[in-house]
Amino acid sequence: MAKKQKKQQPGGTPATVALTAAGTTYTVHSYDHDPSHPSYGEEAAEAMGVSPDRVFKTLVADVDGTLTVAVVPVAGQLDLKALASAVGGKRATMADPSLAERTTGYVRGGISPLGQRKKLPTVLDASARAHATICVSAGRRGLEVELAPGDLTELTEAVVAPIGRA
Questions:
Q1: Residue 116: how many CA atoms within 13 Å on its side-chain side?
Q2: Chain centre distance of CA 139
Q3: Residue-wise over 51-72: b if at least 16 C-beta within 10 A, else e?
Q4: If you average pLDDT over every residue of the chain, what do you get?
Q5: How far is the C-alpha of 50 from the C-alpha of 126, rounded, in Å?
Q6: Cβ atoms < 10 Å from Cβ of 127
Q7: Are 128 and 150 in contact (CB under 8 A)?
Q8: Beta strands 159-161 and 122-125: pairing type?
Q9: pTM
Q10: Torsion over CA of 73, 102, 13 and 110, rounded to 10 degrees?
């Protein structure tokens, strides 16, 4: 069962520190991560008892040589062509995982769109607007933050576009 907290203690992950510093309302959900689970995002949805269309995964892609963050529902997949189009690019491929980790400061399965080491262009899937709140990684496996999609858009300066597909 997921545990809820209103605010992360000072010294939390870079994502929760950024949320607190911005004065954003959010809820932290923690759960015991199972390394054998085949999908980090689906594991999070199951552990929190939240619909997979409200839990969003953070993916890092290379769009015409620029690392770009894509935030899409865990229930679907990233449409690379749509991502490239959303940022005015021509071609997108998934970034090398080790490069994504070094650039964001997070490990795979725990990459958050918030509090990254290097601020990257970000695109949030338009389906997020259908929900009062969504969940994204809080910066480590087994830790999610729930916040309003508008707050995530504002804090990451994200473009909102239909980049996910079922």
A1: 27
A2: 9
A3: ebbbbbbbbbbbbeeebbbbbb
A4: 92
A5: 19
A6: 20
A7: no
A8: parallel
A9: 0.90
A10: 30
